[in-house]
Amino acid sequence: MTDLVTFGETMIRLSPPGNERLETTTELEVRAAGAESNVAVAAARLGADTVWTSKLPDSPLGRRVTSELESYGLETAPVLSDEGRQGTYYIEFAGEPRGTDVIYDRADAAVTSAHAEELPTERIREAEWFYTSGITPALSETLEETTETLLWTARDAGTKTAFDLNYRSKLWSPEEAREVLEGLFEDVDVLVTAVRDAENVLGAEGDREAIARGLAEEHGFETVVLTLGAEGALACHEGEITRQSTFETETHDPIGTGDAFVGAFLAKRIAGGDIGGALEYGAATAALKRTIPGDIAVVTPEEVGGVIEAAESGISR
Amino acid sequence: MTDLVTFGETMIRLSPPGNERLETTTELEVRAAGAESNVAVAAARLGADTVWTSKLPDSPLGRRVTSELESYGLETAPVLSDEGRQGTYYIEFAGEPRGTDVIYDRADAAVTSAHAEELPTERIREAEWFYTSGITPALSETLEETTETLLWTARDAGTKTAFDLNYRSKLWSPEEAREVLEGLFEDVDVLVTAVRDAENVLGAEGDREAIARGLAEEHGFETVVLTLGAEGALACHEGEITRQSTFETETHDPIGTGDAFVGAFLAKRIAGGDIGGALEYGAATAALKRTIPGDIAVVTPEEVGGVIEAAESGISR
Amino acid sequence: MTDLVTFGETMIRLSPPGNERLETTTELEVRAAGAESNVAVAAARLGADTVWTSKLPDSPLGRRVTSELESYGLETAPVLSDEGRQGTYYIEFAGEPRGTDVIYDRADAAVTSAHAEELPTERIREAEWFYTSGITPALSETLEETTETLLWTARDAGTKTAFDLNYRSKLWSPEEAREVLEGLFEDVDVLVTAVRDAENVLGAEGDREAIARGLAEEHGFETVVLTLGAEGALACHEGEITRQSTFETETHDPIGTGDAFVGAFLAKRIAGGDIGGALEYGAATAALKRTIPGDIAVVTPEEVGGVIEAAESGISR
Amino acid sequence: MTDLVTFGETMIRLSPPGNERLETTTELEVRAAGAESNVAVAAARLGADTVWTSKLPDSPLGRRVTSELESYGLETAPVLSDEGRQGTYYIEFAGEPRGTDVIYDRADAAVTSAHAEELPTERIREAEWFYTSGITPALSETLEETTETLLWTARDAGTKTAFDLNYRSKLWSPEEAREVLEGLFEDVDVLVTAVRDAENVLGAEGDREAIARGLAEEHGFETVVLTLGAEGALACHEGEITRQSTFETETHDPIGTGDAFVGAFLAKRIAGGDIGGALEYGAATAALKRTIPGDIAVVTPEEVGGVIEAAESGISR
Amino acid sequence: MTDLVTFGETMIRLSPPGNERLETTTELEVRAAGAESNVAVAAARLGADTVWTSKLPDSPLGRRVTSELESYGLETAPVLSDEGRQGTYYIEFAGEPRGTDVIYDRADAAVTSAHAEELPTERIREAEWFYTSGITPALSETLEETTETLLWTARDAGTKTAFDLNYRSKLWSPEEAREVLEGLFEDVDVLVTAVRDAENVLGAEGDREAIARGLAEEHGFETVVLTLGAEGALACHEGEITRQSTFETETHDPIGTGDAFVGAFLAKRIAGGDIGGALEYGAATAALKRTIPGDIAVVTPEEVGGVIEAAESGISR
Amino acid sequence: MTDLVTFGETMIRLSPPGNERLETTTELEVRAAGAESNVAVAAARLGADTVWTSKLPDSPLGRRVTSELESYGLETAPVLSDEGRQGTYYIEFAGEPRGTDVIYDRADAAVTSAHAEELPTERIREAEWFYTSGITPALSETLEETTETLLWTARDAGTKTAFDLNYRSKLWSPEEAREVLEGLFEDVDVLVTAVRDAENVLGAEGDREAIARGLAEEHGFETVVLTLGAEGALACHEGEITRQSTFETETHDPIGTGDAFVGAFLAKRIAGGDIGGALEYGAATAALKRTIPGDIAVVTPEEVGGVIEAAESGISR
């Protein structure tokens, strides 16, 4: 039996080496990147039997995506299509005050036309968990409908559902996002969201504990996980609050930190861990991710365990 | 006064290093590439006062294109837009039997919405020559209309027009191409076309001389230049036939050979050369281009002259 | 049901870029390489449901191997071990007269201690075909025994067995090889061998047809495939001779040509192809392989089909 | 009308990648670099109609310089010469205590023989501003004379003149510098100098305000800008003092920080900004420059504006 | 006369670029690395007439080692052998919490069979100093014996001996190490050891001064140098204690810091420096080393002197 | 005793990767290159006890040269100087008709001021052979005198002298060269020259045999070796003619072919080989050189022997 199915867009990420500018670079580094496959790889590497599904162009570019994801040990089950592009994004890294700059080039990606009927929904029905994020319904009207159908399908089959709000201002406004996302929440068991998105998009108010409790009550979530950036995370699970601070890390590439957190959180929950253990596992994996180039947490359970142990023993490695 | 204005799409070309496959590459080389800017750079470097115009996204990717073109000494005059993507193409190089593989990702490029009114048409009216190719009207209905307007504008102002048929089977069928292109020919003075496109697209028949003469007569072209691949080129100019063989070359990157030929041909015509001299200049520049990575003929007049001299003296350099 | 199981060592291949020398290089390119995984990837990409098994160190180096193999779409089922090294080989590429130079550093690799009992023999029993090569028994006494057991296990279960002689003079002498290999042949259905190895190692004599027939008769092989280098291949299948010439190719990296041939041959046989079709499919895949960096034929069925069609139509692509 | 003309040497900068040492590197990164072209690019990118002039060898190396400068959108107007080398400098980057090491190899560069008569002085006469720096007269006796002539030409035509003291101890002693530079000051409107050069070379004394006022009074400068390293800058303009602190930055490549400051300062002054606004604009551009590899501030007005806004709003981007 | 002979294994170090993981890298950087050659290069570059000896495979890989060592100006005198591998190690660099990961692949290296008789012992006898480290006897029983013989040989000839404890937990246990090492100490004049190894391996107790004094007294060392990580070093020489703090440094590659310290310490002692001067010279060289990629301190006496002067003058360069 | 001393300039060679143009490259590959050190390395690697001397700047660039030469196993004995530059040359590789383009930037190199008195002439006096080439006296008047002195010194001490004419049209005219070189010939035992230089510079006439005989007689050379490009070489030794054809080779980098020939020729002569054997050894080494990037023949005696054997046995490796 599959532990976890995730669904969403995976792009090709193109970045100049070092601190070079996109305007002048003669070379781009190529990697696969997407919230739902980032989560899937982290979960798979940490012990969950995971499969990622999506819709990709039947081309070397589509194969570039699955090739990399499979290299991390993930099972992929994409639909291949002769229509639609391979979505890409360009990212230029720099320190402050220049900061990191992202240009999305994902319009008309093959995945934007993905209907639930063409996707391997039986894998979702048979799985323990299903995961997608708020990026998916934002990509097209078709995907809005597909996301709804997949979440309903999972619920209907007794598959638990986890959802990361993942608000992207380049895709829609807070108002548009709120309307669509709140319509999806009835089929969601576990909501993960940055606290600022809870405020800006969902209109949550009050201190963090109040926000978590409020969301859980309003939408009937079994679990709400608020991510707090440098301050860690806070969960409200069946009415109980748990807090988790971050682990110290020297950041090499911050992209994908949240996805690493969620993937590890789910892997630990699937393995029977309690909320506190899952938050800690997520935070340790997130700290490791930040040392690794690319969007994806190429880690091992031993490494994550080592981070937790080292912190507990108060000894820096 | 400007000698030559060219108009058309310039893409970002992305290619894996060496013989690597797109499916597995971790790196892409980045270059600017487009028939009309390829022609413009070749002409500019060989002495013609040339300007290239187009429509580009107002982004680091759009600037990547002008940055590279300006680096070759070309004047660029693009319209910048907040709408539309930067077109790209992926190219994987290999010897036979694998061959070179191209994936276009140019749909919805900013240029596809370029209207004549927003372009610097006064530059065309003041110029001696205007050049575009059959790729341009194939990209969108708007561009079909724009191409027609620009050719008419040139003619109206006494600017000579050169047009490379440049048939691309990934953009339209021979029938679609023929209908549109023949509509444009009344405003074209110089037609350049591969002989096989003359046959497949325009339905030309007979031997090469007959094809060149036939096209010239049917559409009233002052000059028809047929490119013949390894066999060189043949021109029918005011009823007179001139032939040009190719110069020997060791091919490193064949893309852009035809554009190098046209750019050099036009530069020589602008400088007062006769048809035979212009064909020879084009063929020598094309031979140099094949030794240079990228779509663009980064050459000097001295180098082109040297190729011609060396061949004449029968001495290999 | 699995179509094909292969077993053997996969090394990490380390090669200086371009024509650089090992003695002076500051950089090495890293790839996974091994006859049995080369065959497995080729077969898997060409449609056969294939799994590769071996024994690897439980380390980042062992994972480097599976990571790359999985990236090509192959299922891997290695045993992981805390004992034994990751085998490597260094390869320096150059044209003649320097030639290509190989340094094996594979002694005490984890795989050399692999016993049949720890390997997934049930996968072999359930599969249609099993494949290994003459490199495997040459690596250690344990592997000599394991090879024998696996071939017997396959036969016992009705799984067909294919075996590539793959003589390596750095591993054993022709005499040692002959003694061991001939002991294995009773459980082999399909023997593939370079004709010069048939002569030097097995003592075969006569013209090629006679050699193929002789080997088939002597050891009761259903099929003998002789590879003839630039002259192609020749098979004796159930007493009938079939010949196949090579396809023209521009060689970028010749390593793994034979493995690409065998993988494609087996994929076509598994798909129901006759011997002639399988030889042709193998030869076309081998031609493509030579254009691809690394040991492995990263190809698609469409590409292999295209090579055959192009050759049939007499048209170079 | 041209806003700004700059004149000075541009070198080819050669640097080992990463922290590698010149003594052992197998590779050098290549960039164009020179105080006056650094200033020119910064000014041009920030809206000033700028042209850079110099004397370069008529060779691929000379073209390497203009090629890169034009790629940033700068107009170049160099004199080309068959005499004289292309100046280069080698730079090895490292953290403390090794520090950054520079080796100049600029003797006998083509520019050292540049006479005012061969330079496009009409461009200077027609421009609003002219800029050069104290490096230029230090390079040769000819250039000492040329610098004097150009500054006089500018003044004579009503073109404002800006001059950065830019003392280089590898080129001359403080005493030699003082004698030459003070002779030039009568034709300078705006002097920029590091405070330590004002002290060491010009013998200025007192606190910073006193130094700025003193220089302005002594030489009749309209504006004196003292750069203070990490403490920012201080200007005395028509007797009034303005201070500017630095913006926070994560330094990737510090070379060219001062030139970025000056280029942006001039662009803002040309656009009508007051001294305070110009200092702020300069400081923000300098902060961005430090995140960019190479000597040159490849920035946009939007980026510079964004740095200022972010600092004002107290929000880190 | 030779100032210093060192003996020990030099490996080929293979590291992914940047922060990449071994599991997924496509490229490895190649360098020579080994405690005793690290020490030898540092000493040689700082003025000591130094020769390094070892046993290497007679292959391009063995030559890769000597090639790099000779490039730093070191004299090498290895025995070449047709038996035994070239030892390698893989190192993956990352910040915390991932940390730096090392995989040794040095078993059965040619050096493990090196007997004293085949080594150039006359060079040791004629030298002023001999140096090896605790890694050497840990590599094989043969090397345990060889180390003992070489130290005895040196002593017997009046050559001073220096020994770095260099405990490696991947090679042996503290107990095994202690037994072997204490047997060697009677022929050692100068012991260098990290204080934590003194405690864990040798069972030293008390504060640092007590540990140094205790070791000196127990084993009759003329000098004991304790390295204290970020806290610097402490020496007990003929009963007198000297302390040395570290110099500030921006770490690029920390590997080999201790060896740089020892090499410079010995060079200064050989040049007649006192213990305090030698410790300071060692600490300054160690600080420089940390800015340099690779295991080896590619420095000059001018640079080391510059670090000391800059610190004394309180002026950061 | 030293077998061979060579004296001459070694430059830093800077070349764009692949077929890139100098005008647009962002990267240069760095190598040491110079006729006399090329010869010295080839001779040293093939068994001759060789030392190269020259004058270099006392800088990281000067050390870059010795570092690389020592890495090939050559002993270097340069004089270090605070005056004079490090000579460089830029080389752009391409196939025909573009061809390979060289830009020398060697004026005022430190070596141009080298006087015989500061060079290690005692090494020449003690050596069996001394070698320099016609490039050396062309570099400066000082070097013209120094070359004369060194050749005389060698003769005076009974050291045999070998001299390669190595005419460089960028350094002097044929007439200038002839006058200087013929003045040196009285102290030369072995002259090597391309046949076309013998004709163009020395005015030799007749067929090749006549040219070789004529030069030998006119100047009293013991040996004259004419190199004939693709046709091999021809020697006149003590009146007897020997011919040598070239070995087949796939050219990767042709620079330094002649120096590899000379270095191997001298090594074989030093080892007691006859003229025929030395020519064959030279030709085989030259063939290997062409497969190796850079100016220098990084070869082994086994490889050279292998080339000769393979050719003799008629078997391609």
Automatic annotation (TrEMBL), chains A, B, C, D, E, F:
InterPro entries attached to this UniProt entry: Carb_kinase_PfkB-like, KDG_KDGal_kin_Halo, PfkB_dom, Ribo/fructo_kinase, Ribokinase-like
CDD domains linked: KdgK
Domain Carbohydrate kinase PfkB per the UniProt entry, residue ranges: 1-297
UniProt-listed Enzyme Commission number(s): 2.7.1.45
Family that this chain belongs to: Belongs to the carbohydrate kinase PfkB family.
Lineage of producing organism: Archaea, Methanobacteriati, Methanobacteriota, Stenosarchaea group, Halobacteria
Entry keyword set: Kinase, Transferase
SUPFAM superfamilies in alphabetical order: Ribokinase-like
EC category name: transferase
Gene3D superfamilies the UniProt entry points to: 3.40.1190.20
Record has Transferase as a keyword: yes
Name recorded for this polypeptide: 2-dehydro-3-deoxygluconokinase
Presence of keyword Transferase: yes
GO MF annotations, alphabetized: 2-dehydro-3-deoxygluconokinase activity
